[in-house]
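Subject: DUF1349 domain-containing protein

B.,
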Amino acid sequence: MTDPIDLPELPFPLRPYGPDANWSYDKGALTGWAGARQDLFVPPSGEALDPVSDAPRLLGAPEGDFQLIARVTVGFGAAFDAGVLYLHVGEREWAKLCLELSPDKPTICTVVTRGYSDDANSFVVEGDSAWLRISRTGKAFAFHASTDGERWTFVRIFALGDEAKAGAALVGFMAQSPVGEGCVVTFDRIEYRPSWPEGLRDGS
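Prediction pasted inline below.
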């Protein structure tokens, strides 16, 4: 394990997991690289017993209710390249909120893994950037996305793990390039709020 990385926007340190992404932080922007064929996905068909590979993550452990917000910009090069806000509660218990080329248009996508992964597309985005938000209260998590960082579209709410696992969840940033030769992902406008959103479906 390498030394933790402190971002001024976050009240907890981050540590890298998985392959080396050459994470760097400068002037409010966090940048990382996914290598060729790096992903984190367990096919629900059962055709693979383990994730296809691994993907670089930068994660920390917030306390209590929270919202983690960031604008993600992806250097798309191949289908399913993505920048991700990532949530981890245990072995084969994790979730991804992605801006992903899926397969030929930038799309807000989600994956929740409970032994095996599900996969769902939400809405198409114009361009290579979008705002993503993960929130937690108790053992409940919510995903939202936005095209402007002001009005938020509800994507999904779910529970993952028991209350103890959910309360100790690791959250943060991930880059992936499942079928491509790699891509660069940048997160900026990073924000942390020690609260659950006032309304899940009212755009706030």
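The helical segments are 163-167.

T.
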